[in-house]
Structures are given as C-alpha cells and as structure tokens.
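Q: Here's a chain of 224 amino acids. Please give me its 3D structure as tokens.
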Amino acid sequence: MTRKVWYLVGAGVLLAVLVVAAPFVYARWIAPEAAAPLAVGAGSGAAVEELAGAYTAGPGSEAGYRVGELLFGQRVDAVGRTSDVSGTVEMSGTQVTSGDVTVQMGTVTSDDGRRDEYFLGRLMETETHPTSEFTLTGPLELGPEFADGTPAEVTAAGTLTVKDVTREVEFPLTAVRDGADIQVSGAIPLTFTDVGIEPPAFGDVVTVDDTGEVEFLLALTPTG
C-alpha cells in the first residue's frame, strides 16, 4: 500500500476512535457531575420543645427532577431543581394529618441551558402549566421517637399533579427534627407518559429514560 493510502486508513481509524471515545470522555470527565440526591441533614439530635400543630415550607426547601439520559451510548443523570417551593403541613402530636406542596415549574433549572429551554417549553409547557403539586391523602405517623429527635422513615401516599394530570403515588420519605424546625426529604417515582409527557429523543445523540424521580427537600418551620 502507498503511504497516501496508509495515511487515509490511519485517519479513518482515528476518526472512528474519536467518534466512540468522545462521548465517553465527555460523560466521564467533562460533563458536570450530577448533584447528589436531596436529603435531610443530621438534625439537632434533640427535641427543644413540643411539636407545633402547623408548619410552613420556607427557605432551604428545594424540589426538582432526576432522570437518566443516554448520550451517544454513555449514561448520565440530568438533574433540575428550584427553591421556589411552598407548602403547609398540619400535625397532631407525631402524626401528620395533612400536607400540601406546590412547586413553581417555570423556575426549575439544570446545568444545561439548552435542556432547560426544552424542559420549560415544549416538554412541560410551563406558561400553561406553571405549577406541580403534591397532596397527602392519609395520615402519616412519625412515631413517638420522632418527638425525641430520632429521624423517622415512613411511606407516604398522596396525589401528584403534573401538567394538570393527577396520579396517586406512594414513596418513602425521611423526616428529622432540627431544633424547632423539621426537615423532610424523599423521591417520588414517575413514569412520564402517565402525566402526558413523551420522553424526548434526538436521533442517536440523546435519549431520555421513560421513568424518573421527583426529588424534594422541605425545610418546615412552625407557622406563625
């Protein structure tokens, strides 16, 4: 073979290696590392006073999504979040008797502006459906140890409304006392087609999983 032919063969091999290796390099070393799941802190470890009868979600609260993406065959986690979260919780002793949380979807952002533009526009249509909401549908007993500062891990049931479609959901959550306040975290599994969302796919470049999670961290302070 002539030197020119060898050069062409070598260039073709190099191009093939780059096509295969580039997504791996991007996913492993260039793409920003996905944020860790939202979780409660250690808490104060001690109860300072009796539990309040009502709490309000305030500063420190967050909510958003986590979903797997396939980028040229390499898996990455896409995570978007907002701190524009409001809500109320009613309690009787260590039992949660009601709870409602509202998330302003138009303020959810990730580490990729192009993803955010698609998420807020074509995918979630936030101008038409600006909020997502969760409502607890049954009492939730945190246990007597919770009043003394021990974290509680329980299963919650309620309704999740996304794009004006309401689904019944059940998921584990963790609650911990932090002085007079309470922190609550959890992740609600979601199949996107259940709420009318078709997971996007852009040829062989990017595909998105059919399922994901709605993550949340509530920082609850006594109302009033």
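Q: Can you summarize the key feature?
A: The mean pLDDT is 85.
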